[in-house]
Hints:
2 copies of one chain form a homodimer.
Chain A (H helix, E strand, L loop, with lengths): L7 H24 L6 H8 L3 H7 L5 H4 L2 H14 L6 H8 L1 H8 L1 H16 L1 H26 L5 H24 L3 H13 L15
Helix pairs in contact in A: 2-3, 5-6, 5-9, 6-10, 8-9, 9-10, 10-11
Chain A binds a DNA duplex through α1 and α3.
Amino acid sequence: xxxRQNSLRQRSRRAVQAELVELAxxxxxxxxxxxxxxxxxxxxxxxxxxxxxxxFATKEELVLGKYDLLSDELLRRLRERPLGEPLWTSLxxxxxxxxxxxxxxxxxxxxxxxxRVVTSTPALHAAYLHRVSRMxxxxxxxxxxxxxxxxxxxxxxxxxAAFACLAAARAxxxxxxxxIELLLDEAMDAVAGxxxxxxxxxxxxxx
Amino acid sequence: xxxRQNSLRQRSRRAVQAELVELAxxxxxxxxxxxxxxxxxxxxxxxxxxxxxxxFATKEELVLGKYDLLSDELLRRLRERPLGEPLWTSLxxxxxxxxxxxxxxxxxxxxxxxxRVVTSTPALHAAYLHRVSRMxxxxxxxxxxxxxxxxxxxxxxxxxAAFACLAAARAxxxxxxxxIELLLDEAMDAVAGxxxxxxxxxxxxxx
DNA sequence: GACTAAAATGTCACTCAATGACAGATGCGG
DNA sequence: CCGCATCTGTCATTGAGTGACATTTTAGTC
Lengths: 207, 207
């Protein structure tokens, strides 16, 4: 039990994982997520189903596993922002990495097919949203800590709004092909530009 | 094939569905969602597993089925808002029904346990988010139609931000016990009160 | 290079959600 | 009372995921 990390075994494990992801996603894009069984994947990889499940706890992880890294990156970027900066600006800068990632066409075209599989497969899309939700919660916790407002809805809502802007921008990029950077700026400007009328004078309970 | 709707059969079907929901949710709260099998529910209801699946397509629907009605209500409320009203205000008013629902303590205490089950069960929470996401998309489509801006990110982002506020308010209500009405106003004011610094002068691609 | 302990793999059996097919029961309209 | 649609139970099957156990690989040591 010496090296612990990056032993030869660890590296080969990573290699097998990467290979499985590549292989599985190819099959998913080709024949669809639901109609590709884990047995199919295992057969294609020349291993037993049980072994596939030793590399990935669930079938979904073959698709969504990569998003686990994203969380750390977002938190790191947000932590790097100066304390005095408005939260909305910090959040926009936090997304710079993601934006650059999706702005890269070489990647975009490769991942686009997989994105389509995700959004068109209810179970997969649900799991995706769950991961985003967890990420969002972590970012919100950090934002609350920054604002020194422990249990305040404000930061949580603002972080949620920022993620909603990112989602809207990604969707618009997928459908219109416009630049995600511009779309995100547009979306975040639209939200930051909101003005609300005064609240209705008295209670308005209905139904 | 006369009445079609509300025939005796339809009503009895609804009754059985309601009974199953009640029964199942009781078991879920008591023993947890994952450790309650559909067989358990069927046995408790005195019917076969197969029959349960004739009333509910999936186990999740026993918990999340009610949210399907919510979508129509939101759309109806939004449609009732005057065209000249700012979108953010219309969205706040759109939530009035939901707010009233969750402000009712009699309901809140009954549903609170179930809410906890949902948020603490990954699979359920994911399915919940998926439904909310679909609802949000419908509302966004309506908002875009109102704004006469077909494929604009703005309305989509704003609607997403509004839903994020609702989610934040609900979460805060669950943890702090404060009034959801005030919390939602606070959250939506926080988002509407955002001001953003001018964008960074030139491109900022990294990584 | 042989030895040993750990890790990886395959096989088998199992649970549980979900679906299709078929047969029998139930209940409504005439 | 009969005929027909609907409801229901039973059985078989698929597919994800898990536990247990035996076997094979492989890394590190002498």
